[in-house]
Design brief:
- By secondary structure, the chain is of the alpha/beta class.
- The strands form 3 sheets. It has a 5-stranded mixed β-barrel with strand order 8-12-9-10-13. It has a two-stranded antiparallel sheet with strand order 2-3. Strands 7-14 form a two-stranded antiparallel ribbon.
- The chain folds into 2 domains: 129 residues, Spore Coat Polysaccharide Biosynthesis Protein SpsA, Chain A; 130 residues, Spore Coat Polysaccharide Biosynthesis Protein SpsA, Chain A (Alpha-Beta Complex), CATH 3.90.550.10.
- The radius of gyration is 19 Å and the shape is globular.
- The chain is built from 9 helices and 14 strands.
- Helix 8 crosses helix 9.
- InterPro entries: GalU_uridylyltTrfase_bac/arc (IPR005771), NTP_transferase_dom (IPR005835), Nucleotide-diphossugar_trans (IPR029044).
- One of its GO terms (molecular function) is UTP:glucose-1-phosphate uridylyltransferase activity.
- Keywords: Nucleotidyltransferase, Transferase.
- It is an enzyme of class 2 (transferase).
Length: 265
């Protein structure tokens, strides 16, 4: 499958650094955040990578583009080894650069990738979030290929924190996935949906979306029809809820921890 990575956000919480450096190129360990994200997509079997950019994010394109003068200079100075891991990552990958002219929410960003998806399902990874302790994507892709049902990764949060996120409700299945029947973006405290476990018992935690999706192509029609939601933005959650009502939706709990690099702390 193809992987779509939104990376057009302004990164205002990192100003003034992000006047010059996209937040997706801030290092976590040895490599920038987006290097880790692309590696995760590649490990899940994605070889065509579409990255959504906006004005001022040209450094991301430069990072993943071949630079022959640089390679020649590294060869002449015996320093080519410095690029070995970058070359290993990009080997076998093709990159498509997609422009998001205006920041109108995550749903709008995903809508910009319709031509790239070319009528097929799409893997979506948020470009400012890395997974620590394992990726849910291999299981999500496998389930999508078996069922053709869209998948979303989720993590448990306290009901009090659930009001900060897109959250879902539904029922726990025998394979550990959740069959969803509710999706809400940043619900009010009394609106947080629940997951039902064995014998209909309600699980104590809420479940928030965790930056990884495998979406059927029907998401693009849904994005065209849903009205703007919170902050007058096109909310991906609202479009996913529309898909859920038409053809169902599953959720997979992430095996490790989600690290949102959009938050400096």
């Amino acid at each position: 499958m193809k992987a779509l990575i939104p990376a057009a956000g302004l990164g205002t919480r990192y100003l003034p650094l992000t006047k010059a450096v996209p937040k997706e190129l801030i290092h976590v360990g040895k490599f920038p955040v987006l290097h880790h994200v692309v590696q995760e997509a590649k490990d899940a079997g994605c070889t065509e990578i579409g990255i959504i950019l906006s004005a001022g994010k040209e450094a991301i394109r430069q990072y993943f583009s071949w630079d022959q003068p640089l390679m020649d200079w590294l060869d002449s100075t015996g320093k080519r080894e410095a690029m070995a891991e970058w070359e290993a990552l990009t080997d076998g990958l093709t990159f498509t650069w997609i422009n998001q002219p205006e920041q109108r929410g995550l749903g709008d960003a995903i809508a910009c990738g319709e031509d790239f998806a070319d009528g097929e399902g799409i893997v979506v990874l948020l470009g400012d979030t890395i997974m620590q302790g394992g990726s849910p994507l291999p299981q999500m892709v496998k389930l999508f290929e078996e069922t053709k049902m869209s998948q979303v990764a989720v993590e448990s949060v306290t009901p009090e924190k659930a009001t900060r996120y897109g959250v879902c409700g539904g029922a726990l299945q025998k394979d550990g996935s959740f069959s969803l029947d509710a999706m809400i973006e940043k619900p009010a405290p009394g609106e947080v949906p629940v997951i039902r476990g064995a014998f209909g018992a309600t699980l104590p935690d809420a479940f928030a979306f965790a930056a990884r999706y495998v979406l059927s192509n029907s998401i693009f029609n849904a994005l065209k029809t849903v009205p703007p939601g919170r902050n007058n933005e096109i909310q991906l959650t609202d479009a996913m809820a529309a898909v859920m009502k038409q053809s169902g939706f599953s959720a997979i709990r992430i095996p490790g921890k989600r690290k949102d690099v959009g938050a400096p702390e």
